[in-house]
Structure prediction request, 330 residues.
Amino acid sequence: MSSVRTLLITLAMALAAAAGLATAASASPFPGGHPIEMTVLFPAGSSADVSARLLADGMSKRLGVKVFVVNRPGAGGAIGYRYVATQRPDGHSLVWNSNSISTTYYAGTLPFTYERFEPVAQVLVESPVLVVSGSSPWRSLADVIAAAKAKPDTLTVANSGAGSHTHISAVALFKTAKVDVVNVPFGAAQLVPALLGHQVDAALQLPAALTSSVRSGDLRLLASLTDKRDPAFPDVPTAREQGFDVSLEAWRGIAVPKGTPKAVVARLEAAIKATVASPEFKKGCENLGARPAFASSAEFGRIIAKQDIELARLMETIGLNTRLQAHASR
Prediction:
């Protein structure tokens, strides 16, 4: 009888100890030893994917847990946004967001706005560029415009997907130039082979997926859509320099589901800030044709809100805003 009682007491003590360990683990500071998932809205090999993996590596070192990238492409980013928005707001599900949070909403492919997420930090900026094959006869933006005017609705321009930032940028550029082209939602991963194989005439894309092919001479940059020349490509004139007033710089950053605790956001923000300031990250951005541009959670939130209004107006002007009534009620 005493042996049975001793066994029961031993089991009770073991269960109590296990419960205590579980409670201590759950109370440990974020991230509590658990891995973190970063959703990337575009396929492997895209500019979003390459830069996200660079950030994830740096964050992993500073958080002490693995930050792993999962690609959830489709609908200009809407599929990935929908997924992350439904995850627990505990800091273990991140989205590598961009201007696409606004363009997908106003294009009608996303049912909610940027307000569904908490901004964590802006990380970098990229300049959309117009690119053609290295064997193309076109040497300037004016050459492409002239070709489009000569044969309306025949020149094909690839982008990352319907409603994506590069799609909006392409429509804005050619609307400003008063020419009609065929926009092709080709996807970044297939874009270089498509250009080299002459399946499309040109592309409006972010630099990361193009840099190595540009440096090898296989592709040729004709214009950047930014206020000033991109330091990564100082010989490439802006669209404005060539007479077309279009500037649509793209930002990338990290956001989490609404309701994520402020302490968790602050921990993630600190890890991102340290990563962006590191020599490894700066060198990686240089290789990708991107520019490190850290902004705190509060500042990043202001950047997103301001550009959301600007993109709504632009998309209305170029006929791509399907939510005119929602915008008008702002």
